[in-house]
Amino acid sequence: MKYFFLSDGWNVSRVWEFGGLWNENAWRRKPHIQQLSIGIVEQGETLWLYQVEEAVLMIEVKPPQSTSAASSIGQVVLKRLIASDEAIALLAEAEAIIKPSGV
Question: Looking at the whole model, is its pTM more than 0.70?
Fold first, then answer.
């Protein structure tokens, strides 16, 4: 598995695998992307930890929908995926570790 941290409220958009953009018809399914029940606070920003399958190479993320269209132009980020040991290191060095309410 691979991991990435995503700002609270941001959404996953496009997904890349070795052959290019993820093709649901070829794979016959969506990519496995799961938000885990742990996050960190970095410089006052909440970042949630996500897990993705090995076939995923890169993820495009976008800001919350509540952001106006004019101000969101150019606000697309390609997330670099990290290994489990890197995710653990970031959790260990975080300002604070959080869990979703109700967990």
Answer: yes
